[in-house]
Design brief:
The chain has one domain. About 75% of the residues lie in helices and about 0% in strands. The chain contains eleven helices and two strands. It has a two-stranded parallel sheet with strand order 1-2. The radius of gyration is 29 Å and the shape is globular. It starts with a helix and ends with a strand.
Length: about 250
C-alpha cells in the first residue's frame, strides 16, 4: 500500500505541475517581464500623435524674458570680443563695428522691414510675439553692458560661452513659438513665394555676412565666430527635435 500511495502522490504532483497557471499569476509574471518593453518611447511616436501640453500665458512671458536675456548676454560676449553671429544679429553686430552705434538700436531698426512679411507669412499672433521679443532683446542688449563689467575676456571663451548662450536663448524662444525675426522670416517668405529653400537662403545670407566680416575682423575673429555658430546650431539641433518637447503656445 505504501508504494501505491507514493505512486498516486507522484501522479498528482505531475498533474499540478502540468496544469496552466491562473490568469492573475500569468498577468503578474508577464507584467514583470514586459514592463520595460511596454514603456512608451516618445521618439518612436509620430509628432502629431503626441499629447499636447499648452503653455500658460505667464509661462510664455517668462520664456520670452529669459530667452531674450540669454541672447543679450551672448551678444555682449560677442561684442566685447569682436565676434560675429549669423542672421539679423550678425548684421547688427557688423553695423555696430562699422558705425560705432549700439547693437540694440541697430538690431531693432534692421528688423522693421520684416514685420510686414511676418504678418503675411505667420499671422498677427506670431508677428506680435516676434516684435515684443525683438524689442526686449534690443533693450536688454542696450542695458547688459551696464550690468556686466567685463575687464578681460578670452576670445575663445567668448566664442564658446557666447554661442552657448545664443543657442539656449533661441531654443527657449522657439519652444514658445517666438522668433527674433529678420532673415528667418525673409527665408520662409521666399520659400513660400518662389520655392527657394529656406535653409539655403539662410545659409546664403550667413555666408554673405561672413564675407563682409573680412573687411572688419581679423582672421582669428572670423574663425572663432564660425566656432560660436557651430556651437549655437548644435545646441538647437540636438534639443529641438520632433517628440522631444510637447509644449505648445
Amino acid at each position: 500500500m505504501s508504494d501505491k500511495r507514493r505512486e498516486s502522490q507522484r501522479l498528482d504532483d505531475e498533474e499540478i505541475a502540468a496544469a496552466p497557471q491562473d490568469d492573475g499569476a500569468q498577468a503578474s509574471h508577464g507584467a514583470g517581464e514586459s514592463a520595460e518593453d511596454a514603456r512608451p518611447d516618445l521618439e518612436d511616436v509620430a509628432p502629431e500623435d503626441l499629447p499636447l501640453d499648452p503653455h500658460r500665458p505667464h509661462e510664455d512671458v517668462l520664456a520670452m524674458l529669459l530667452g531674450t536675456l540669454l541672447v543679450a548676454l551672448g551678444v555682449t560676449f560677442y561684442s566685447q570680443a569682436m565676434l560675429l553671429a549669423g542672421s539679423t544679429a550678425g548684421l547688427a553686430l557688423l553695423a555696430e563695428y562699422v558705425t560705432g552705434l549700439g547693437f540694440g538700436g541697430m538690431f531693432f531698426v534692421i528688423n522693421l522691414p520684416f514685420y510686414y512679411l511676418a504678418i503675411k507669412r505667420m499671422g498677427w499672433s506670431f508677428t506680435l510675439r516676434t516684435f515684443i521679443a525683438t524689442a526686449l532683446l534690443s533693450l536688454f542688449a542696450f542695458l547688459t553692458p551696464g550690468w556686466v563689467d567685463i575687464a578681460s575676456l578670452n576670445p575663445v571663451y567668448a566664442a564658446v560661452i557666447g554661442g552657448s548662450l545664443l543657442g539656449i536663448g533661441l531654443l527657449v524662444l522657439i519652444r514658445h513659438r517666438t522668433s527674433l525675426g529678420g532673415i528667418n522670416i525673409l527665408a520662409l517668405y521666399l520659400q513660400e513665394r518662389f520655392g527657394w529653400r529656406a535653409g539655403y537662403v539662410q545659409l546664403g545670407v550667413d555666408m554673405l555676412i561672413l564675407g563682409l566680416s573680412f573687411l572688419v575682423l581679423e582672421p582669428n575673429g572670423i574663425a572663432l565666430s564660425v566656432l560660436g555658430a557651430v556651437i549655437m546650431n548644435l545646441i538647437i539641433g540636438l534639443n529641438h527635435k520632433p517628440g522631444r518637447y510637447i509644449g505648445v503656445s
